C-alpha cells in the first residue's frame, strides 16, 4: 500500500498541471514527485547489495578453497544478485525519460 502514497499525488498533479500527454514529462517538478521514491528505493537496494557482497566475500574467503574457485563462486553469486536487487538501475537512475534518442536513453 505504500506506493499509493506517491502515485495518487503524482496522478493528481499530472491531471491538474500536465494533462496534455502522459508519455511526456515537460514539467520537471511533477516528474520528481514520482521519481524521488524510485531513486530512494534504488539507493536502498544498492546499499543492501553492497552489504550482501561484503558478507559473501567474507564467507568465501573463510572456506579455505582454491583462489580460482573463490573468484568463480563470488562472481556467480554477485551476478545473480545484480538483477534481483536492480543494481543495474544505479547506472541509469538519473537518466531522463524524456523524448530524444540519446545514447544513455537508448541503452536503457
From TrEMBL:
Keywords: Membrane, Transmembrane, Transmembrane helix. The keyword Lyase does not apply. It is a multi-pass membrane protein. InterPro entries: GPCR_2, GPCR_2-like_7TM, GPCR_2_secretin-like. The chain crosses the membrane at residues 29-53, 74-95. It holds the Pfam family 7tm_2. Residues 1-108 form the G-protein coupled receptors family 2 profile domain. Its main location: membrane. It is found in: Membrane. Gene3D superfamilies: Rhodopsin 7-helix transmembrane proteins. GO terms for molecular function: G protein-coupled peptide receptor activity; gastric inhibitory peptide receptor activity; peptide hormone binding. One of its GO terms (cellular component) is plasma membrane. One of its GO terms (biological process) is cell surface receptor signaling pathway. PANTHER family: GASTRIC INHIBITORY POLYPEPTIDE RECEPTOR (PTHR45620:SF5), PDF RECEPTOR-LIKE PROTEIN-RELATED (PTHR45620). This is GIPR protein. It comes from Oriolus oriolus (Eurasian golden oriole). The lineage of its organism: Eukaryota, Metazoa, Chordata, Craniata, Vertebrata.
Amino acid at each position: 500500500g505504500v506506493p499509493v502514497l506517491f502515485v495518487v499525488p503524482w496522478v493528481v498533479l499530472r491531471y491538474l498541471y500536465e494533462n496534455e500527454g502522459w508519455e511526456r514529462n515537460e514539467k520537471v517538478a511533477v516528474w520528481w514527485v514520482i521519481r524521488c521514491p524510485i531513486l530512494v528505493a534504488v539507493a536502498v537496494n544498492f546499499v543492501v547489495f553492497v552489504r550482501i557482497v561484503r558478507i559473501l566475500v567474507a564467507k568465501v574467503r573463510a572456506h579455505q578453497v582454491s583462489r580460482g574457485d573463490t573468484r568463480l563462486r563470488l562472481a556467480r553469486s554477485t551476478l545473480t544478485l545484480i538483477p534481483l536487487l536492480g543494481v543495474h538501475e544505479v547506472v541509469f537512475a538519473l537518466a531522463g525519460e524524456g523524448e530524444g534518442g540519446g545514447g544513455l536513453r537508448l541503452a536503457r
